[in-house]
From TrEMBL:
GO molecular function annotations of the record: NAD+ binding; oxidoreductase activity, acting on the CH-OH group of donors, NAD or NADP as acceptor
Pfam family, one: 3HCDH_N
Single Gene Ontology BP annotation: fatty acid metabolic process
Domain 3-hydroxyacyl-CoA dehydrogenase NAD binding: 7-184
Family membership noted in the UniProt record: Belongs to the 3-hydroxyacyl-CoA dehydrogenase family.
UniProt name for this protein: 3-hydroxybutyryl-CoA dehydrogenase
Keywords of this entry: NAD, Oxidoreductase
Length: 293
């Protein structure tokens, strides 16, 4: 029988951590959520509350389910608060040194049998696992954005991930009513290995002046039937995350076809990270998004 998971910790209260806490609480798991910035936890709880209210208004969940789910989520002030968790999911900024530092601080607080997962979009699960005290209990559980809406979760085993960890993670994801795609531990796994080079190419198309933001997004929405244009999607994912994934692909696969577009680098350097900072390939500060090029 797979190890039973009841209490879940989430580290990183950004857009993905909030979404993960949201779906776990609705599936009746007890959830603790932590962030290095205390105000992000507050903001995250407000976002979850608002998103659940939207689900109630769309009759996707009942008001009773919303109330019960909100009761399941508690803020975690420090790593010690994760001492009674069966599973902790790290969903902090996509930077290897940040994730490693979190694991170093977190591991001494965890129960020896607790599973540690990362929601990384691209980094090596094997390498991250090796920086913890529990490589056999470490796994990639990669959610898609926005978590409450997207059906898929990628499961990625590192070289040392044990069968028990894999089976328990599979059972956990099943309880969230998500479908699993198993990926081998290669840079950016399956979805982002295919999706991010497409987005990067759209940014090159903009950079080289083939089309402007509006033309590129319209072309891919109406010409390829994508629900969102690639530049709109890049803003939604976060341009810092897009750049990190391209850097991991470029370095990890040593192929120049993954070279991050210099325009993407420039936007990130400007702090124009997309929706989360109100400006990216679109400016979101007004009533409706306005292309920035
Ligand atoms: N954005 C996406 O579409 C998407 C999809 C799937 C997976 N991911 C992955 O999820 C993770 C989070 O991405 P996001 O989009 O939520 O980013 P985000 O910028 O919205 O949130 C990241 C959060 O991590 C926090 N953080 C940074 N350092 C920390 C630390 N030392 N301890 C605790 N918290 C810390 C930040 O304060 C921030 O609140 C990344 O690994 C990313 O690759 C992102």
């Amino acid at each position: 029988m797979a190890q039973s998971i009841r209490k879940v910790g989430v580290i990183g209260a950004g857009q993905m951590g909030s979404g993960i806490a949201h779906v776990c609480a609705l599936a009746n798991f007890d959830v603790k959520i932590h962030d290095v910035a205390a105000d992000r936890i507050k903001q995250s709880l407000a976002t979850i509350n608002g998103n659940m209210a939207r689900q109630v208004s769309k009759k996707l969940i009942s008001e009773e389910q919303r109330q019960a789910a909100l009761q399941h989520i508690k803020p975690a002030a420090s790593m010690d608060d994760f001492g009674d968790c069966d599973l902790v999911i790290e969903s902090a900024t996509e930077k290897e040194d940040i994730k490693r530092k979190i694991f170093t601080e977190l591991c001494p607080s965890l129960r020896p049998d607790a599973i540690l997962a990362t929601n990384t979009s691209s980094l090596s699960i094997t390498r991250l696992a090796a920086s913890t005290d529990r490589p056999e209990k470490f796994i990639g559980i990669h959610f898609m954005n926005p978590v409450p809406l997207m059906e898929l979760v990628e499961l990625i085993r590192g070289i040392a991930t044990g069968d028990q960890t894999f089976e328990a993670s599979k059972e956990f994801v099943g309880k969230l009513h998500k479908t699993i795609a198993v990926s081998e531990d290669f840079p950016a796994f399956i979805v982002n290995r295919i999706l991010l080079p497409m987005i990067n190419e759209a940014i090159y198309t903009l950079y080289e002046g083939v089309g402007n933001v509006e033309a590129i997004d319209t072309a891919m929405k109406l010409g390829a039937h994508h629900p969102m244009g690639p530049l709109e999607l890049a803003d939604f994912i976060g341009l810092d995350t897009c750049l990190s994934v391209m850097q991991v692909l470029h370095e990890g696969l040593a192929d120049s076809k993954y070279r991050p577009c210099p325009l993407l680098v420039k936007y990130v350097e400007a702090g124009w990270l997309g929706r989360k900072t109100q400006r990216g390939f679109y400016d979101y500060r007004g009533e409706k998004p306005v292309p920035t090029r």
